[in-house]
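Forwarding the complex inputs:
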Amino acid sequence: MRIIVAGGDGFCGWPTALYLSKQGHEVSIVDNLVRRKIDDELRSNSVTPIATLEERVAKWKELTGKEIKTFVGDLNHYDFLAEVFKQTEPDAFVHFAEQRSAPYSMIDREHAVYTQSNNVIGNLNVLYAIKEFAPECHLIKLGTMGEYGTPNIDIEEGYLEIEHNGRKDKLPYPKQPGSFYHLSKVHDSHNIMFACKIWGIRATDLNQGVVYGLHTDETEMDPILANRLDYDGVYGTALNRFIIQAATGHDLTVYGTGGQTRAFLNIKDTVRCVEIAAENPADKGEFRVFNQFTEYFSVQDLAEKVQKVAGETGLETEVSHIDNPRVELEQHYYHAVNTKLRDLGLEPNLLTDEVIKGILTAALNHKDRVIKENVLPSISWK
Amino acid sequence: MRIIVAGGDGFCGWPTALYLSKQGHEVSIVDNLVRRKIDDELRSNSVTPIATLEERVAKWKELTGKEIKTFVGDLNHYDFLAEVFKQTEPDAFVHFAEQRSAPYSMIDREHAVYTQSNNVIGNLNVLYAIKEFAPECHLIKLGTMGEYGTPNIDIEEGYLEIEHNGRKDKLPYPKQPGSFYHLSKVHDSHNIMFACKIWGIRATDLNQGVVYGLHTDETEMDPILANRLDYDGVYGTALNRFIIQAATGHDLTVYGTGGQTRAFLNIKDTVRCVEIAAENPADKGEFRVFNQFTEYFSVQDLAEKVQKVAGETGLETEVSHIDNPRVELEQHYYHAVNTKLRDLGLEPNLLTDEVIKGILTAALNHKDRVIKENVLPSISWK
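Prediction (whole assembly, two chains):
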């Protein structure tokens, strides 16, 4: 299958590109490399040293004989995107190429505008490019479980059967996103649903949980193939951030009471879920939503898990509670359905002590790279 | 009350600005005059001749002694918007300043991108300006009944009580908008709801039906104050378009079977609804949704009403059916709630034969201005 991985230089995109390439697919990466530039802007870095995209794909070719084409450019530049479609004739377009940090989108007006404009218009361009150049191409779009917020009813996969005043309909699941970033994904979902309806586009929206982990079998083959690992208050996600705090002797800082429950999955499952979606494309005109996570935990649970494993490794850490920079419920109902990917064959990598230990080991190997003043949150929702 | 009317040079904004000024409010108009430029782009015009904004407000001052300040500029330019907020210190911000034609947004990719970027980012800027310069200012935002689409259940005002698997919640009403324009309003609604939650902004989303009519008591005071009247396939809305077709001896062209049912209101009720919202502001942090319409009709019903009144005036017209350029259901359930504005005192101007005759008379007075090749739809959803 000819597959474009947009955002293929990023934390989820890079391992996905390698995995799909290894499975024998003809993979092209599209990326504007902005995530690397944001490291400069925020004076931040990945704990793991990461090679340039050029070095990465060259090493991959050297080790496997497989070629990954690269197109460095921006989805917001339609001429560029059109050229990519003409040259690659994709069967699937995997779309990771969005600004994906909630705190980054909340820095100030300019960052909110950048996030929504970049994500929404970039995605609109992808829809038009599919319509114009590859109408059979399957759009596999990364959404987020954060689109749903924390309703007091069960979260279904994209749609909800509603009975109201004696009548019934199956409607898009109501969305209550919690940042300008999460909102951008909700906007995308609505735009894609409409494009499927009017143009017959095939699309799968992967409402992904919080991703943890670092290595996949492919990124572990050589240090040049290593994946990035974020730990800072802007791009670091809960579990990875706690592990790096443990590795550097920092308290594990839980926002508020820590009762916030979120859906999680291992980066190894991210790459497999994308493969499953690609191998089982949506029908013509279908807008399909998969909830892409394997387990859910409260933030407090996660911190305690990390504390335990770190303790067994001889690292004493404290779980401390800091003012929550976000506006969110700290105690709430949470039950979300995730059966569609399981039905198609996903076998989850669950969050075992072994998994936490693996990430902790990688963090300890590079702990001298951690910029300590970046660890605590500096961006407030208010 | 100090009120900004953004989009105050347009079809709804101009009569609203006059009406609020007449009621004694201190009104400022903000407008980038783009609707006039779009007339040039589309080689289109208003059936009624319209004066410049400068002439309009000068005449208003001459007739009433009341001053309406004008700020010509774009909500997408934040420095400009910030300056407007600093100079006016608004108690209410009435936001009509969006690209408001569904067909225009469907012309091609560039028009879709323009519509979503202009509307969503402009509105984001307004939210940030309120937060930064006027945190108590009440945002009165024009949404559309088209945000809801045509679900098979009753349409409520913004929220829906849902019972699911034995649990209950009140959630944002699921949205199924039918064009990139309608989608932009859905994106706005989600962004505003979030801003209310995190910053305590007061907002009322007026989900307005299709507006018909032309005159208000104020715009009738002098030809220089006349409102615009669109009839073309891009900006003309159903009822007004039928009336102008009748006035110019054109068949009344119903899209498809004409079973599409939509909510309508008279422009005289638009201005009153905005006043009601302004006089009864939302609470701090409240995101309130009013469905702003008075009646609903199928498109076929409307055509037949116009045919009847035109016939009584001696104008013989045929109702013809043309291919539907839109992708939409032509037969569907439609029942929408609109009690909140009524409860606050709205007394509807219903669609009587007299009302149709009034618009028809205005159209006949200016029928030589109609550019006939603009009447039929030229933009397809596919």
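Residues 2-374 of chain A form a domain with the Rossmann fold fold (CATH 3.40.50.720).
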